[in-house]
Amino acid sequence: MIGGRYNSCFIRQRPIDSYIVDFYCSKHGLVVEVDCSHHYIDDYLEYDEIRTTIFEVLDLSILRFSNLEINNNIDSVCSKITDYILTKEKSPSLRGMSAPADRGSL
């Protein structure tokens, strides 16, 4: 449980602009996206880039994880989110910057 540990609330399926994000934490301006296999097709990669740009303009940061990563290594996913939150609390200027997309392997 990440949110409770750091007094951060994650909302599931939150509308932002004209999109619906998988998870959102307003305290840290953090969007967490869980990408299934269709996100690896060229058209969807471009769509995700557009979404990411819009979220960054809104001063939001995005962390992306593949379904495979979630299913096979949830502890690592939780650690990455936790690390982001802890780093963010130490350096609030990170808001609006997305972590490099690590979509895992399929």
Fraction of residues in H or I helices = 40-55%
The rough form would be described as globular
**Within the largest sheet, what's the order of strands?**
1-2-3-4
Low-confidence stretches: 100-106
The succession of helices and strands, N to C, reads HEEEHEHH
Mean pLDDT equals 79
Instruction: Give me the Rg, rounded.
Output: 13 Å
Count of separate DSSP helical elements: 4
Terminal CA distance reads 26 Å
Mind summarizing the main beta sheet?
Answer: 4 strands, mixed
Number of strands: 4
Structure description:
The structure is a single chain. With 106 residues, this protein is of the alpha+beta class. It is 41% helix and 24% strand. It is built from four helices and four strands. It has a four-stranded mixed β-sheet. Helix 2 links the parallel strand 3 and strand 4.
List its traits.
alpha+beta; 106 residues; single chain; 4-stranded mixed sheet
Question: What is the gist of this entry?
Answer:
This protein has 106 residues and is of the alpha+beta class.
Summarize the helices and strands and which ones pair or pack.
Blueprint: H1 2-5, E1 11-16, E2 19-25, E3 30-35, H2 42-57, E4 61-66, H3 67-72, H4 74-90
Parallel strand pairs: 3-4
Antiparallel strand pairs: 1-2, 2-3
